[in-house]
Amino acid sequence: MAFKEKVKNNLLITTLIKVRSSELFWIFAFAVLTTFAAQVAVPTQPVPFTLQTMLVLLSGVFLGSRNGAYAQLLYLAAGIVGLPVFAGFSFGFARLFGPTGGYLLSFPFAAFLVGYILEKKNNTVTLLAALVVGQLLILLAGASYLALFMNGDYYKALFSGAIIFSVWDLIKTAAAFSIYKVISKKYPRLP
Predict the structure, then answer these.
(1) In which band, very low, low, confident or very high, does the pLDDT at 104 lie, cut at 50, 70 and 90?
(2) What is the pLDDT of residue 179?
(3) What is the CATH number of the domain that holds 159?
């Protein structure tokens, strides 16, 4: 196979070629910010309160669907390969198969969804709706996965993995909304 064909067939290289260097900077920056947000945690069982979801939402808002998802995939990949990026400076592939795995696995999808909604129509009402929908996706995916660790008791998982976070997540959603409104006035589009 010729070198050009090998490069063309390599998904990672093809993706990197399509993404500009400024976009790569912001993808990396949001992966790092998500790491820092994961360390702002209130240890509760079975799932800690963290600021991660706020950064997941913001990555979709600021970077758009594709790059927001890439930022969260980079965050997950960093944790999988052994960098201490998850809550409590934890790491490893096994984290995706633990009680918080559903939340973590939903991050790229939530960032993509928020960005996608805003790419279709970007106004204040749509922004708020996109943030709420993204937050709900994370909570419901996380609680559904958490039910596996609670003997299939979805209602118990929904309470301890979603409802208990409702006030906290409303605050994070409002903060993400406010952060976007303030920053977007000065910088309409980051990448």
Answers:
(1) very high
(2) 93
(3) 1.10.1760.20
